[in-house]
Amino acid sequence: MPEFTFTLRIEAPIERVWEVVADIEGWPEMTPSVDSSRALDANVVATGNRFLLKQPKLRPTVWTVTEVRAGEYYSWESRAAGITTRADHLLVAEDGGVRLELLIRQDGLLAGPVARFTGAMTRRYMSYEANGIKRLSEQRAQGDGG
């Protein structure tokens, strides 16, 4: 089961970071790894809610939220022929900031070959996402005066 991780410190209150991470329809303005994002149910990170993401060089994909701890964690997954991809977003408050942890796990018959083919792009997209979350969260925190 291939796994990819990316961790980054963000100098902002956890509430600000959660707002950015959970505003999935806003991701295209935050990261070049998402061309468009549309809530199929509601733009709320809640178990069962689905989002259609279009990313450069990838097919449009429906992601379904599978687990949520509001304000600190959510997981969602997408399925395609021969592969299931699970992505976790974890926020950990520490020393006045937040540690953002992103994790992608792929499972299924095609997981290994797909990971070998798209691994570098996956790591790049995770970096774009994490750095976009950091930039926007820190901008919002400064706007709050903190």
Task: Explain what this protein looks like in three dimensions.
The chain has a single domain (3-143), classed as START domain (Alpha-D-Glucose-1,6-Bisphosphate, Chain A, domain 4, 2-Layer Sandwich). It is an alpha+beta fold. The chain has a seven-stranded antiparallel sheet, with helices on one face. The protein is globular, with a radius of gyration of 15 Å. It has helices spanning 14-22, 27-30, 111-143, and strands spanning 3-10, 36-39, 50-54, 61-69, 73-80, 83-94, 97-107.
Produce the secondary structure layout.
Layout: E1 3-10, H1 14-22, H2 27-30, E2 36-39, E3 50-54, E4 61-69, E5 73-80, E6 83-94, E7 97-107, H3 111-143
Antiparallel strand pairs: 1-7, 2-3, 3-4, 4-5, 5-6, 6-7
Helix pairs in contact: 1-3
Question: Within the largest sheet, what's the order of strands?
Answer: 1-7-6-5-4-3-2
- β content, as a range? 35-45%
Order of helices and strands: EHHEEEEEEH
Helix content: 25-40%
Shape: globular
Number of domains: 1
pLDDT < 50 runs, ≥5 residues: none
CATH superfamily: START domain
> What does the radius of gyration come to?
15 Å
Question: Pairing-aware structural class of the strands and helices?
Answer: alpha+beta
According to DSSP, the number of beta strands is 7
Largest sheet: 7 strands, antiparallel
| The top level CATH class name | Alpha Beta
Distance between the termini: 41 Å
**Count of discrete alpha- or pi-helical segments spanning 4 or more residues:** 3
